[in-house]
Write a structure and sequence with these properties.
The chain contains 27 helices and 9 strands. By secondary structure, it is α+β, with helices and mostly antiparallel strands. A 5-stranded mixed sheet has the order 3-4-5-9-6. The longest helix is centred in the N-terminal third of the chain and has 31 residues. The termini are far apart. The structure holds zinc ion. Zinc ion binds next to α17.
């Protein structure tokens, strides 16, 4: 049987042949491609010649290309256009893929060859990019235990099995606790303050559970509007306390022991691999590099943001006094923030939306990219798509060179997951004289136009589109030799720089006037609205910052020191929070027992990176602000030193090459309006 996934894609720009692909093609294609990749690796391992950079590292880098291509197509479909059938295939092939990747990292012959090259690397005259590839590949083996003795390796495997069970249990407990609580209301007076849509959702939920009245839960779509709008302080308190007590109630779902076991095992694992702590292990492959650097970063921001946060807290307390609130509590925060924001700015989404018709915003994104990087976007209709809503563009530069293919997929539908993301169907790479260009995609979930109404974006959606397009630029302009170092393949505390940087143009009059035009009158958005957008985006920024910093510090405290002596989760947490708390502590509540980011997801020793990325983008944008937001020379510098370079050089060096100096947090503090409190 012929299989389009395994043949050469005979398509324009060698794009994915979606119209020919059937679900039945995936499994056999994966099997065949894995075997192909295995055979390629066998050839490397059995090469009778002494290992060299070319016959080992480069050969390894370019092995498995067919497999990569099939994986990209498949997993992108699983995110954007999935079905029961595709999900079933994903379940079947995921173990095959992880077994294959384990086969590589545990392949002793292969590691031996890589190690031999690594040991003589200073004699090899490698380019910076080659050096990075070699180091990255070598480290990948070592970080997975390649240098350990047989006994240590089996110990590592036991720890890993325990860790994955604990993480799973942690998540299941949080979920169970989430579902365990329901606020059931039957008196209409208790709903005062809530928006119609929230009440409606609560009514539907009650009906589903065959109850009278309204039911609110700890899920965000129910919890957040309740805490923001419900007038009843008693009920807000009840909800907040239930939320904060998740997996901290000494019942079957309690996570206290799991947290302690997790951090102790992570520490042991790091020690086994030769690192001082889990944070040291994680941060070796981050721009921040070390726990010391992260602490300096967090504490410096803390010292600057705290006075502002305290002032905001005092203002909010004063504002709440009108309701005879003597002590502002955690369950008052969202409620009074919203009321104060309304009083100060009175900015409604509906006022802004007419200025952000989707087509106009896309045109705006393309225009900004053209003014900065001379890119042109031409919609083309000859490329296969996986859904009729998808649009495809050929991207060219000023001299009409082909740069990339861009797919855009903007509207929600069954089979697409929530949120917005950038991805690729094909990475960029160079071989000999060929510079093979990338196929990049952005996927969002914006309101679909109807027959009578165009798609009008909220301001949040506008910044989302700019954000994802910033990632897309990183992918499209990539210009490296090796695909695993290309585009967005960078350390993850660096990957949000291009995306967050690009969001900055949404707040500038000079950029907005290019595309923010009323969809009926064509009038440009008024300047006072732009001012309001800017000011309201900084509203209570000090308190927000303090909150983010508190999570970052808690994460680092759990993971950067020997946890042997910790025996009480709440006590340890209170100690970590002591410099960042504005609200009185709630003794029945604990954050760590439901801190899924760091105990279930992949953010351990990485929570700081949210703020880190903001510091980078503000610092980078300040150079544009000083020289003009459409300054071509600055843009060119950013393109040459950052967008084109991917992960070929350490991010701090890339950044300094662009900026002329290391980033400081001054620009962020300025942008957030936090400096005036000094
Ligand atoms: Zn992003």
């Amino acid at each position: 049987m012929s299989n389009p996934l395994l043949e050469n894609y005979n398509t324009p720009f060698s794009t994915a042949p979606f119209s020919k692909i059937k679900n039945d093609h995936f499994k056999p294609a994966f099997k065949k491609a894995i075997n192909l990749a295995k055979a390629e690796i066998e050839v490397i391992c059995n090469n009778p010649e002494a290992p060299t950079f070319e016959n080992t590292l480069e050969a390894l880098e370019f092995s498995g290309q067919k497999l990569n291509s099939i994986s990209s197509i498949f997993f992108n479909l699983n995110s954007a256009e999935t079905s029961d059938e595709i999900q079933k295939i994903a379940q079947d092939i995921s173990p095959m893929l992880s077994a294959f990747s384990n086969d590589i990292t545990l392949n002793k012959k292969l590691f031996k060859r890589v190690q031999l090259v690594y040991n003589i690397k200073s004699d090899l005259n490698l380019t910076a990019e080659q050096d990075m590839l070699l180091t990255k590949k070598y480290k990948n083996f070592v970080r997975n235990g390649a240098n350990l003795t047989k006994k240590e390796k089996s110990e590592l495997r036991i720890i890993d099995t325990k860790l994955s069970k604990l993480k799973l249990q942690f998540g299941e407990n949080v979920l169970a606790e989430n579902q365990d609580f329901k606020l059931h209301l039957t008196n209409k007076d208790q709903l005062k303050g809530l928006p119609e849509s929230t009440i409606e959702a609560a009514q539907i939920l009650a009906k589903q559970l065959q109850k009278k009245g309204w039911i609110f839960t700890l899920d965000y779509p129910s919890y957040i509007p309740f805490m923001t709008y419900a007038d009843s302080r008693e009920l807000r308190k009840k909800m907040a306390k239930a939320f904060g007590a998740k997996a901290f109630r000494n019942n079957d779902n309690d996570n206290q022991q799991i947290v302690l076991d997790l951090v102790k095992l992570r520490h042991k694992r790091a020690n086994l691999l030769g690192y001082k702590s889990h944070s040291h292990f994680v941060l070796e492959e981050r721009m921040a590099e070390s726990p010391e650097n992260v602490y300096v970063f967090l504490n410096d921001l803390l010292s600057k943001a705290k006075p502002a946060a305290q002032k905001e807290f005092d203002n909010l307390s004063k504002f709440a006094k009108k309701d005879e609130i003597v002590q502002l509590e955690k369950w008052d925060s969202a409620y009074y923030s919203e009321k104060l924001k309304k009083e100060l700015f009175d900015l409604e989404e509906e006022q802004l939306k007419p200025y952000f018709k989707l087509e106009n915003v896309i045109e705006g994104v393309f225009t900004v990219a053209n003014k900065l990087y001379d890119l042109n976007f031409e919609e083309i209709f000859t490329i296969d798509k996986y859904h009729k809503d998808v649009k495809t563009y050929k991207v060219t530069d000023a001299t009409d060179n082909y740069i990339a293919i861009l797919y855009t997929d903007f509207f929600p539908r069954k089979g697409k997951r929530n949120g917005a993301w950038m991805t690729s169907f094909k990475d960029q790479w160079k071989k000999g004289l060929e510079n093979s260009r990338p196929h990049i995609s952005i996927v969002c979930n914006f309101t679909k136009p109807t027959n009578t109404k165009p798609s009008l974006l909220t301001f949040n959606e506008v910044t989302t589109l700019f954000h994802e397009f910033g990632h897309a630029l990183h992918g499209m302009l990539a210009n490296t030799t090796y695909p695993s170092l290309s585009g967005t393949n960078v350390y993850w505390d660096f990957v949000e720089l291009p995306s967050q940087l690009f969001e900055n143009w949404c707040y500038e009059k000079e950029a907005l006037s290019l595309f923010a035009k009323h969809f009926k009158t064509n009038n440009i958005i008024p300047i006072d609205l732009i001012d309001k957008i800017k000011k309201s985006s900084n509203f209570l920024e000090g308190m927000q910052t303090l909150r983010q910093l508190s999570f970052g510090i808690l994460d680092m405290n759990w993971h950067s020191k020997n946890p042997a002596v910790i025996d009480n989760v709440k006590k340890f947490e209170s100690q970590a929070f002591k410099n960042t708390q504005l609200f009185p502590d709630v003794k029945e509540n604990c954050m760590s027992t439901s801190f899924s980011h760091i105990f279930q997801g992949g953010y351990s020793s990485g929570y700081y990176s949210y703020k880190w990325a903001e510091v980078l983008d503000a610092d980078a944008f300040s150079l544009f602000l000083e020289n003009g937001i459409f300054n071509k020379q600055i843009a060119q510098k950013f393109k040459l030193n950052i967008l084109e370079k991917g992960g070929t050089i350490k991010p701090m060096n890339l950044y300094v090459n662009f900026r002329g100096k290391k980033p400081t947090n001054t620009a962020l503090l300025q942008r957030a309006g936090l400096l005036k409190y000094d």
